[in-house]
Write a structure and sequence with these properties.
It is a single chain. By secondary structure, the chain is an alpha+beta fold. The chain has 8 helices and 31 strands. A 6-stranded mixed β-sheet has the order 10-7-9-8-12-11, with no helix packed on it. It has a 6-stranded mixed β-sheet with strand order 19-16-20-24-23-21, with helices on both faces. Strands 25-28-27-29-31 form a 5-stranded mixed beta barrel. Helix 4 runs parallel beside helix 7. The longest helix has 19 residues. The two termini are 13 Å apart. It binds adenosine monophosphate and magnesium ion (MG). The site of adenosine monophosphate has 19 residues, from strand 16.
Length: 435
């Protein structure tokens, strides 16, 4: 996603449920081909979100608060700015002295940056003052240096300045006790800037979620290592770490859990103290050795469901050691789609944000069909045509084809049972910056 979400979510309307299919009829539907009960995307997502609690607020160093939701109103501890200063490099004067220019004044001193100033401007006098320097007593205006001619200890002011000109009063930005940033605001650069300017070294925020990423499968090898017959590289851990980062979370590498219930629980336990939630991939289907199913089927701490979507049908969520677990299917494209549709809003909720993955509207260049009972997230390429986006189908539907996916720019949401025709407007979840 390469930061696409962060940028998009600033520009787009956000609404929970925005990345799901709308047309899933009711809560459940029977898939005639598969003889399985399918839960609608919205229903599954709302059950998952209901199980997630926002992380408790923590006071952390200001430097780490960017991107986090502020947990309480922050008030200015003192006037901002704290003293009356000059807005220009020039001369602090009494405005009455320069009312009929040219006016010659005696230069009696110089204000230095970062230093207090004891002297005062008397009648017929001027004091050199830099931008941001303290305005000396007695002065009620600053004449910019460009409007003056300096001759030794004399300065000729060429233009009159009204009282108050080029002076920045103390407390102009905020008074002591004024709210600088309200609780609930996701802190952007100007917000953290305001807190820094007020001298606050820490703030109480909902912290970034630390998300343990665990892959499952006996066939998996970490990239960078040699592959034997019948093995494949673990792409999901890398995808999920990228997705977690893009969502503003912090991925924690939980490694590969082998296809064994105990091994999976061990993998989760190893990182349990370091994470706020787990996202794992693979092993949620009904296969003999599917470890998520095996480990948690009997504990009652996980909900398993078939969701009316393609890809991404088998899903599970629950908790382990008091931390939410979001278990996604194994195919890499399914992983990405399920992350966007389910894990993304769940992480948002953990971090105090009521947001779903941002979407855009694009015009389809060719028809795309969805299965009867499942919303299709179809890979599309996006291009700009005037002021509209055009989406062209890209690659097949197989959810193991990652190179194909890497050629796509987004996922077009085709409601279950629908064939969307060329020329129709379609919601698309961008997977990278828009063209
Ligand atoms: P599973 O859900 O475990 O049955 O896996 C479904 C498919 O996804 C299988 O073909 C797996 O090999 C593949 N798969 C599972 N985990 C990963 C992974 N981490 N990286 C790439 N492919 C995976
Ligand atoms: Mg597996």
């Amino acid at each position: 996603m390469g930061g696409a979400v962060g940028r998009l979510s600033r520009r787009l309307n956000r609404r929970r449920g925005g990345s799901g299919g709308r047309s899933a009829p009711g809560r459940q539907v029977r898939d005639p081909e598969e003889e399985a009960i399918l839960l609608s995307i919205d229903e599954y997502r709302s059950r998952l979100l209901a199980s997630i609690e926002t992380l408790p607020a923590r006071r952390i160093s200001l430097d780490d608060t960017w991107g986090c939701v502020l947990a309480e109103d922050v008030v200015a501890p003192a006037d901002l700015p704290g003293f009356t200063s000059s807005a220009m490099d020039g001369y602090a004067v009494r405005s009455a002295d320069v009312a009929s220019p040219p006016a010659e004044l005696r230069v009696t001193g110089e204000v230095r940056m970062g230093q207090s100033f004891d002297g005062a401007v008397g009648a017929g006098e001027a004091i050199v003052v830099p931008t941001g320097g303290v305005v000396p007593h007695g002065a009620d205006a600053v004449v910019p240096v460009e409007l003056c001619d300096r001759h030794g200890d004399r300065v000729v002011v060429l233009r009159a300045v009204p009282s108050g000109k080029h002076i920045r009063p103390a407390g102009e930005d905020a008074g002591a006790g004024d709210v600088l940033v309200r609780a609930g605001r996701r802190l952007d650069a100007p917000d953290v800037g305001a807190l820094a300017a007020a001298g606050l070294g820490a703030a109480s925020v909902i912290p970034r979620a630390r998300v343990g990423v665990v892959s499952t499968g006996d066939e998996l090898v970490r990239p960078g290592n040699p592959l034997r017959d019948a093995q494949i590289y673990d792409a999901n851990a890398t995808i999920l770490a990228a997705c977690v980062r893009d969502a503003g979370g912090i991925p924690v590498d939980g490694g590969i859990g082998r296809d064994d219930a105990g091994a999976l629980v061990d993998a989760l336990d190893r990182i349990a103290d370091d994470v706020d939630a787990f996202v794992c991939s693979g092993g949620v289907s009904a296969g003999e050795r599917d470890p998520v199913k095996r480990a948690f089927e009997a504990t009652g701490t996980m909900t398993f469901a078939n969701v009316a979507m393609q890809p991404g049908r088998p899903q599970a969520f629950g908790s382990h050691r008091g931390k939410p677990v979001i278990a996604l299917p194994g195919n890499p494209v399914s992983v990405f789609v399920s992350f966007v549709v389910f894990a993304y809003p769940a992480l948002m909720k953990l971090m105090g944000r009521d947001e779903s993955y941002p979407d855009v509207v694009a015009t389809l260049e060719a028809a795309i069909e969805a299965p009867k009972t499942r919303t299709r997230y179809a890979r599309v390429r996006l291009r700009r045509d005037g002021d509209r986006l055009v989406a062209a189908p890209e690659g097949g539907h197989q959810s193991n084809l990652l190179a194909t996916f890497a050629r796509a720019d987004g996922l077009a949401i085709i409601p279950a049972g629908a064939t969307m025709a060329a020329g129709e407007s379609c919601r698309v979840l961008p997977v990278r910056d828009l063209p």
